Amino acid sequence: MSIDRNSLAFDLTRAAVLATGHVVPDPPRCVQCGICSYNCPLGLDVRAYVWRGAPIIDSQCLTCGQCVARCPRGALAFAPIGQPT
Ligand code: SF4
Ligand code: SF4
Q1: Pocket of ligand 2 contains residue 62 by CB under 6 Å
Q2: Is the dihedral of CA 82, 80, 65, 19 positive or negative?
Q3: How far apart are the C-alpha atoms of 22 and 38, rounded to whole Å?
Q4: How far is residue 65's CA from residue 36's CA, in Å, rounded to a whole number?
Q5: How many Å apart are CA 79 and CA 31, to the nearest integer?
Q6: Hey, which CATH number is domain 5-80, 3.90.1150.10, 3.40.50.620, 3.30.70.20, 1.20.140.10?
Q7: Which residues face 49 on adjacent strands?
Q8: Distance in Å, CA 35 to ligand 2 centroid
Q9: Contacts by 13-19 with C-beta closer than 8 Å and gap 24+?
Q10: Which one has a higher pLDDT value, 18 or 74?
Q11: Looking at ligand 1, which residue's alpha carbon is closest to its atom 2?
């Protein structure tokens, strides 16, 4: 059986992000449109986290990046845990 090295590398990268990072908001950029929450496949209320200025720390978060990619204001980003936002 062959190993898909590209897929493995992606999995390892994702695992590293899951272990060491999460989505963090830049609240002044947010216009509370809700697109992030609407596009979260787990239905997490990302907008509410941004409203509170809190990182999205939820055991259900897949760090899939949909909220980061869909935000029209660039108000979300991945950051290592412990890094000032
Ligand atoms: S998509 Fe961006 S601007 Fe809209 S509520 Fe979410 S963080 Fe705020
Ligand atoms: S990274 Fe994915 S699962 Fe996590 S809050 Fe954003 S859209 Fe939802």
Answers
A1: yes
A2: negative
A3: 19
A4: 10
A5: 21
A6: 3.30.70.20
A7: none
A8: 12
A9: 14/63, 17/63, 17/78, 18/63
A10: 74
A11: 71
Strand partners, 24: 77
Q: Is 27 exposed, middle or buried (0-12, 13-18, 19+ CB in 10 A)?
A: middle
- pLDDT tens by residue, 47-60: 999 999 999 999 99
Q: 19 by DSSP, 3-state: which? A: helix
**In this structure, what token pair is assigned to residue 44?**
């997490």
Q: What 3-state class would DSSP assign to 21? A: strand
Q: State if residue 50 touches ligand 2 by the CB under 6 angstroms criterion.
A: no
Q: Which amino acid would we find at residue 41?
A: P
pLDDT, greater one: 6 or 58: 58
